[in-house]
Amino acid sequence: MSSPSIDIELDSLKDAVSMALEYAKTLGTSGAEVAISKQQGLSVSTRMKEVETVEFNKDGALGITVFRDGCKGSSSTSDLSKAAIEQAVKAADDIARFTSADPFNGLAEKSLMATQFPDLDLYHPEDISPEELTRLAVLAEEAALDTDKRVQTSDGASANAHSSVKVYGNSHGFLNGFCSSRYSLSCVAIGEHEGGMQRDYDYTVARKFSDMAAPEIIGRKAAEKTAGRLGGRKIATTQLPVLFSPEIATGLMGHLVGAISGGSLYRKSSFLLDAIDTQVFPDWFSIHEDPLLVGALASSAYDSEGVATQARDIIDNGRLATYLLTSYSARKLGLTNTGHAGGIYNWTLSTTGQTFDQLVKEMGTGLIVTEVMGQGVNTVTGDYSRGAAGFYVENGVILYPVEEITIAGNLKDMYQNIVAVAKDRDLRSSIRTGGILMDKMKIAGN
């Protein structure tokens, strides 16, 4: 990229945060926190091996929240001049003077602030040109179009190189910032056979440019997945074991994130109310969180309130070990802040030792789910009903693709009915898991 590395802005952004906090102090506020994030990046998209778009972005803003005796006000500015920053602070303070007091408002406790900032190896800047990203995207499309004669159309490829710098400070004296980088490549293929059409995709993402999967691999996988879906059919309404592919298993665990997050709990909109130390999963199942995992996609030494993150078990031998709480939700619930303002950090699921392919064989007769559709998840009751597509398996062998079906159950039962987790994990998100095999689910088809 032609622009300079974003890390040279780190010191000036810290100065801007300090300036805002100092000015907030002069206004007599009871507390303040300031966050700045700046991003820059290059994105190239192609379609049928022709460049469609080339985009360069560089943006960011300063956001400030001030507290005044339980009242809260927030404002933001993209102008980091002294006058603009002071104007934003004053605006936040004016808002705080006219909002209703909430006894649970305020900064996270000072004793919880992070004091150690290890190098998590998140920043690997590369001078990447639009031509290089175009080359990757085209290579992915070429591989997709050369993989299977039934795949003769590409719905596009996208290559991206982005970096960001984030600085956070508050009136406890906390002030820190860090840089990160993220590179990605994706490809979407379209297949046609006997009048039916299907599409599917594959992607790679990494902190380091050289850690991405080769474009030829991404294109080939996109085409293979697309070709595999051609000729899909419904199956009769039944109950069968269901094996969620790793990408879909990640989403299944995402429902757990929502259910144990503080906001859902104090609003009483979770099917896991009062579930701490109760058996939610089988006793062999665990989820471990490691915020300090070097080079991972969801690592951080502190959350968005400056609270130190820490390795912990989320699920310990099947039992729910913790909720995910911010300072506000912790006070509201009368519990301890867990440092989860801003999300989760590198959840890793335990496995039962088999590969995904081995689980297909062990399942015998059942359904592999590779796609879910719709929003049919009730977080209050745990009821789960979603459109799905995948593959029908008999005697451990994939027989044909399946489409236009619905899978249904209740998340409480589904979590308890997990019988295996594959060891070949998908590491492309904050939830690191292999395929998940359910004992049985209701399947609505013909």
From TrEMBL:
InterPro entries associated with the record: Metalloprtase-TldD/E_C, Metalloprtase-TldD/E_cen_dom, Metalloprtase-TldD/E_N, PmbA, TldD/PmbA_N, TldD/PmbA_sf
EC id: 3.4.24.-
Top-level lineage group: Bacteria
GO cellular component: cytosol
Keywords: Cytoplasm, Hydrolase, Metalloprotease, Protease
Broad class of where this protein is predominantly found: cytoplasm
Domain called Metalloprotease TldD/E N-terminal: residue spans: 32-96
A biological process from GO: proteolysis
Any GO MF annotation of the entry: metallopeptidase activity
Domain Metalloprotease TldD/E central, chain residue ranges per copy: 123-229
Localization per Swiss-Prot or TrEMBL: Cytoplasm
Record carries keyword Nuclease: no
Family statement drawn from the similarity comment of this UniProt entry: Belongs to the peptidase U62 family.
Organism: Shewanella pneumatophori
Record's protein name: Metalloprotease PmbA
Domain Metalloprotease TldD/E C-terminal, first and last residues per copy: 238-445
Cross-referenced NCBIfam families: PRK11040.1 (NF008268)
